[in-house]
Amino acid sequence: MKGYITIDKEICKECHLCIQACKQGLISPSGEYNSRGYRPVCFQDEAGKCTGCALCATTCPDIAIEVYRD
Q1: What's the domain count of the chain?
Q2: Residue 30: which residues within 8 A CB-CB, separation 6 or more?
Q3: Structural domain span for residue 35
Q4: By three-state DSSP, how is residue 18 classified?
Q5: H/E run at residue 43
């Protein structure tokens, strides 16, 4: 199964729990700041490794991640 995620950069508070939760290593810190002064995470999956397991979304305390599965 393939999947992908979207991250609401305005909600993300830079806790990085999703980075640790992603078994594929597809989430990384961003260099940009949001309007609240946090540097949100970003999702990069050019190789299509995301399975849509939702571990990242489950660990996000701010509910900033949505998971989609194909």
Answers
A1: 1
A2: 9, 39, 40, 41, 42
A3: 3-69
A4: helix
A5: strand 41-43
Alpha-carbon gap, residue 60 to 16, rounded angstroms: 9
% of the chain surpassing 90 pLDDT: 97
Q: Which residue is listed with tokens 């999703």?
A: 18
pLDDT band at 23 (very low <50, low <70, confident <90, very high): very high
Q: Residue 54 — φ and ψ, nearest 5°?
A: 75, 15
CATH number of the domain that residue 53 is part of: 3.30.70.20
Q: CA 65, CA 18: separation in Å to the nearest integer?
A: 9
Contact between 14 and 39 under an 8 Å Cβ cutoff? The reply is yes
